[in-house]
Structure formats: C-alpha cells, structure tokens
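check this one:
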Amino acid sequence: MGRTQTDGQTLLERAGQSGRTARVRALVLSGYGLNCEAETEYAFAVAGAEPVRVHINDLVGRRVALSDFHILAFIGGFAWADDHGAGVILGTKLRRHIGDDILRFVEAGGLVIGICNGFQALVNLGLLPGFEAGVFRREVALTYNDSGTYRNQWVHMRVEPTPCVFTRGIDRIDLPIRHAEGKFVTSPETLARLEAGGQVVLRYALPDGTPAGGRFPWNPNGAMSDVAGICDPRGRIFGLMPHPEAYNHITNHPDWTRWVRLADPDERAALLDREGAGIAIFRNAVQEVEAALI
C-alpha cells in the first residue's frame, strides 16, 4: 500500500482508524506513468472501502482476478507518457489482454470510475459512452486543450440529473483539473444522444453554477457543451476529467484559509476536520455496492 506519511501514519492507516471492516473491495490500477495511487486509495478508504493497488501487469497477467473486486478505478497520470495520445496505449492494452474480463465485470454489476487519464483510457478502450452494452466502441475523444497548454487549476462543476451512481445527491462541486488533453469532442449526433439519454454528468460551470458556455478559464479546455464527465446508460461507468480524489480534505481547496478566517471561532476546529467534497463521489460508489451485498 501507499506510504504517504502524515504525522507518522500513512494516509490509509489514518483512514482506517474507525476499526470498521470494509466489505467493498476497490481495485486501484497502477503502473507505467499512472501517479494518483495514494490519493485514490485514501479516498476509497475514507469512503469505507478496502482499496488494493494493482499493477497493470498483474491484472493483464491474471495474477490478480478482476472478479475479486466490486469497483475498478482507472486513475490519473500519464500512462506510457501519453506517447501515442492520452490513454491510448492503456486502453489498447487492456482491451487486447483482458477485454472479456472487463465486459464480464461490468455485466456482473461492477462499478468503474475513470479519472483524468483514466477517463481518457475509458473512451479509448471504448467502454464509454457505452450506448450498447457488452461492446467496445470508441465514439468520443479527449484531445488537446484549446489553450495549447497544460492546465492545473480548480474548476466549478455543475452536476446534471443522470442515473450516475457516483454523483447521487450532488448538484455542484469544485474540483481540481490537471491535464493537457481534456477537451471533450464528438460528433453532433453522438452529443445529442448523450444529452437525450442523460449521460452528460458533469459540466464546467461559472461560480454561480450555470454552464460556462465555453468561456475560458471556467471551461479550461474548450470541451463541447462544457462536458467534463459522462456515464454509460446505466450510470455504473463514470469518466471525468477533474480529480475528486484530490479534494479529500477541506485544506485541499484553495479557499480553505478564507473559510476558516470567516468561520465562527467555535466552529473552526470542526471545519478543519471536515473531509473534502470529492469523497462523496467515492462514498456513493461504496454505498451502492454495500446495498447490493445486504
């Protein structure tokens, strides 16, 4: 497990202090340039799951069985340095070696989340938008930002009404983005189908929660229709460019010092102990699996 230290303890040790035995197992895919393992493990642990970091070679070599898990997480980073395009090699390798395993996992009710590079891998794999179950088909792309630069900033997100398991109970959220190829593009026909089917989950927004309307920097990459995240028709496969695992504690947010300064002195200690809003996305997934296990 990850050894990111805080006050002499790993993040996972801190997350597990409640003593609760997790029933939900989450596979956090790692290796070859992926780099958000510790944060993603921590987010799942805080949400009540047992996260297990698995190198891609162990998964494609079937030394680890995907069927032993309930949630599959494609994390952020730069798989194979994005040498042939963001998420291309990762998506191709998984489809070639364990494509059937992934389809069986989804058919059996497993949940999948792809974050940033993970979202790019999901669309290159053809698992999203997933109009037809049990088929890999590439119908959308995530390409170079209109700015021509890598963007590392926080964005306001509008959460649309969809069947997405991961965003239940959330209508707005701030999250960080870190990408050079995050511009969502597709054909007008495919976009209309996504909109009509309620598969557009997240949109880049203005501070008041209204869609960004393509305006930079609120829409940081020029994405069509401000799309920042989509799901499959059942809402069980979710891809998004922002990083929910990177907002795991209130102090991750750039405004946290102002919030503390303006808070009532009696409330400051509790405020500083508050988890970040991104954890809700992981907790929704864990609770969905827990309900199915009852």
